[in-house]
Amino acid sequence: MKELIYTLIFAGLGILLIFLLLFMFLPGKEDGESVETMRYVAGVYTSSIQFGEHAVDMQVIVDENRIQSVSMVNLDETVETMYPLMEPALENIADQVVEKQTTEGITYNADYQYTSVVLLNAIENALAKAELSAAETGE
Fold it and tell me: Smallest Cα–Cα separation from 44: which of 126, 102, 100?
């Protein structure tokens, strides 16, 4: 009877040891945390938009992983007066780009649809200058 009990205990310990080894050494699920890889070269990037004789620069500030801000620089009063929808369109787009961290899926008001498309293209051009190529990221 003792021998049967000892055999069951050793068999149970053996099975437990096998499960422990499997649990420790088999690849499992990744932790919920993922390490962010660099997406951009940190800096200030601009893209120009030509409005008649005047050029307006779209400025995008990025760090290695995030879009920090989007703004217009060198905005002449003449351009601002002739294109009054530019400021509200940019505020709307800039908020969404910084929040979503992408230019994909940006929505805009139908009242300033064409202005928004021009601004969004300029933002995409500036971000393209900031993006790392696949060779630089090691992918």
Answer: 126
Question: Has residue 56 been placed in a domain?
Answer: yes
Average pLDDT, the chain: 86
Smallest CA-to-CA distance from 36 within 62, 66, 60, 69 is with: 66
Structural domain includes residue 100: yes
133 DSSP assignment = P
Q: Domain range spanning residue 98?
A: 43-131
Q: What is the pLDDT of residue 135?
A: 46
Q: Which of 126, 57, 136 is nearest to 97 (CA)?
A: 126
Q: Domain of 47: which CATH number?
A: 3.90.1010
Q: Compute the CA torsion angle 35, 37, 39, 40 (nearest 10 deg).
A: 110
pLDDT-based confidence at residue 109 (cuts at 50, 70, 90): confident
Q: Which residue has the higher pLDDT, 51 or 121?
A: 121
What's this model's pTM, rounded to 2 decimal places? 0.69
- What is the number of structural domains in the chain? 1
HSE at residue 6, side-chain half, CA atoms within 13 A, is 3
